């Protein structure tokens, strides 16, 4: 520990913190299951790798994950009553804490490497929650969408708009509704919609229409009324409406017949963004798409 004096001072200070501490076995599992990711971390932390070989992982976990395992305040997960909540890590990224049907407390980003809290230890300056897996920091939009087979059509759609992928990777504090492959199959089933792919401006406008600000989790959807909440999108001048039917959220496009159900929610992305999967491609108004086609719309999400 003394090799990292700043870390020691931080953990031994007067500021209350909450730490999610992986076990030694968690690190061994990480190495076996994701060797390339494990090695990429160690290559960037060669000095700590040598330290890791003969010392407890406790002293380096925070360096390895840029404090994504630490909350900058005291939060007792054992007192959590809601089935799901979002806290902010010391590295300013959201962390989902949920309680499953067996009353286990789980933490993670909502997409991979969800860790279970095995036991808790209380300290004078905070709380240590021991977990059975290493938390992977939220990934960028590109990594998440490209790695999911059910979003391959959406990924290709984004790539067809020059510069759009970089713009989505750089977003901060937004919510992205990602149509699945089945959603694009429904879109393509209508002959007139096939013309969309021939106009980059229209493609760009549709992608921007799937983004809102700020980051909205499924917990917020549950507060929306059946009449719906109108929300500004990344496409200037175009709103979408979000309703809650009692069990899941529904996102409505510009026309009455264009609506999408949320089929998977709360996938946390890098930069404080949130990704939700929907079963239908949302379309802005006809006027907006015609304008985008005529003027070769190239704006990126605007807020």
From TrEMBL:
Residues 1-135, 138-282 form the FAS1 domain. The lineage of its organism: Eukaryota, Fungi, Fungi incertae sedis, Chytridiomycota, Chytridiomycota incertae sedis. This is FAS1 domain-containing protein. It holds the Pfam family Fasciclin. It comes from Batrachochytrium dendrobatidis (strain JAM81 / FGSC 10211) (Frog chytrid fungus). InterPro entries: Adhesion/Biosynth-related (IPR050904), FAS1_dom_sf (IPR036378), FAS1_domain (IPR000782). SUPFAM superfamilies: FAS1 domain. Gene3D superfamilies: FAS1 domain. It comes from the Eukaryota. GO terms for cellular component: extracellular space.
């Amino acid at each position: 520990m003394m090799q990292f004096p700043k870390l020691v001072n931080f953990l031994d200070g007067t500021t209350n913190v909450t730490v999610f501490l992986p076990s030694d076995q968690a690190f061994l599992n990480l190495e076996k299951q994701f060797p390339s990711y494990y090695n990429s971390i160690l290559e960037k932390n060669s000095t700590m790798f040598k330290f890791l070989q003969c010392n407890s992982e406790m002293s380096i976990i925070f360096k390895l994950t840029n404090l994504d395992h630490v909350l900058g305040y005291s939060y007792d997960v054992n007192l959590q009553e809601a089935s799901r909540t979002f806290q902010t890590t010391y590295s300013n990224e959201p962390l989902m804490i949920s309680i499953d049907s067996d009353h286990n407390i789980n933490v993670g980003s909502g997409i991979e490497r969800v860790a279970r809290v095995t036991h808790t230890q209380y300290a004078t300056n905070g709380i240590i929650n021991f977990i059975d897996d290493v938390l992977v920091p939220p990934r960028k939009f590109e990594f998440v969408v490209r790695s999911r087979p059910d979003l391959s059509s959406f990924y290709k759609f984004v790539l067809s708009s020059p510069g759009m992928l970089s713009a989505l990777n750089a977003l901060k504090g937004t919510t992205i509704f990602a149509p699945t492959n089945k959603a694009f199959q429904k879109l393509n089933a209508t002959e007139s919609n096939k013309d969309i792919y021939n106009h980059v401006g229209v493609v760009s406008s549709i992608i921007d229409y799937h983004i809102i600000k700020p980051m909205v989790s499924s917990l917020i959807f549950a507060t929306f009324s059946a009449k719906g909440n109108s929300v500004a999108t990344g496409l200037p001048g175009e709103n979408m409406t979000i309703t809650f039917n009692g069990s899941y959220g529904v996102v409505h496009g510009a026309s009455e017949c264009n609506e999408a159900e949320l089929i998977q929610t709360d996938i946390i992305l890098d930069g404080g963004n949130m990704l939700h999967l929907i079963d239908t491609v949302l379309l802005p108004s006809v006027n907006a798409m015609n304008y985008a086609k005529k003027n070769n719309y190239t704006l990126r999400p605007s807020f």
